[in-house]
Amino acid sequence: MPGVATELTETGTKMNANIELRHLRYFMAVAEELNLTRAAERLHTVQPSLGHQIRQLEEFIGVRLFHRDGRRLALTEAGRTLLIDSRKMLQEFDIMLERVRCAGQTEADELNVGFYHGAEWRIFPQLLPFIRSQCPRLELRLRNMNPAEQVEALRNRTIDVGLLRGPLSEPEITTELILSDKIHAIIQARHPLAKLKRVSLQQLADLPFVTISRGVAPVYERMMVSLAAEAGVQFRTVLETDNILTSLITVGAVGGVTLAPAYVGQILPKTVVARQLAIVPTPTTDLLVAYHSGTTKPLLTLFLAQVHDCFREEQKQRK
Question: 13, 145, 151, 181: which sits with the fewest CB atoms below 10 Å from its CB?
Fold first, then answer.
């Protein structure tokens, strides 16, 4: 937080030896609840003490953080700024503590991770070595699951986090965007269209279309329908598979076409090629990390931080 020096003393982490981290946690509770009674209950403290902590914080900073109208509270512009910065600061502090704790553990901590078929090619080569180097005692238990299975497992808390394609809208599940992949056409290598650098959906419409089952990949199915509708075409679906690798092999066998994220270029069999779509802007598909909204497991916070750190450059390029 600009202008506020931090130091570690015997009594804890303090700012200028006057304001402690608990002042920020108290402020965040009041800022999010906008009600002293509810904030005090949330913090398991009493309202007078909470009000005193907020006044101390305002006096130290020298600005009002709340507009007060009787019992009604509203954040000032300074309060809104502090809330944003406090969230970042406390999250980074919690991640730091978890990294230190993880490094000092004599036994491995485990995190159950569900992933869609294909994540092992797209993200594991980067993510797993990165996590092993940063958190050597964090043990990941990986489970190959389709999106529907992941959502159910997240609801039941049988997995801690999922890696799947978005968008996803579920009331109990929070998602964060990791990265986006361009969509490419996958065509039989011997087909005349394979000689082109870009192909249109109109050119692909007459080819046998290989799709992934709606039950396995509902997001993929909705994307195909949307792209076809926008182009004014209808794909001639002849085969359904339950994973991307089977789709790639099938396209090569039947002389058809499928649409897939660009990363599959790393695993294409020799019977097929990937070609860019002649669509502006190029359609993309999102990779999400998902977790139950009520999860408070510290290791999850650490895992999420490692995921974003690992793909930071790709995230910057996407923006």
Answer: 13
Report how far residue 15's alpha carbon sits from residue 197's, in angstroms, rounded to the nearest whole number: 58
- Domains in the chain (CATH in brackets) are 6-104 (1.10.10.10), 109-178+287-318 (3.40.190.10), 180-285 (3.40.190.10)
Tell me the residue type at 148.
Answer: A
pLDDT of the residue at 103: 57
What pLDDT does residue 8 have? Answer: 27
Q: Mean per-residue pLDDT for 19-25?
A: 80
pLDDT at site 72: 81
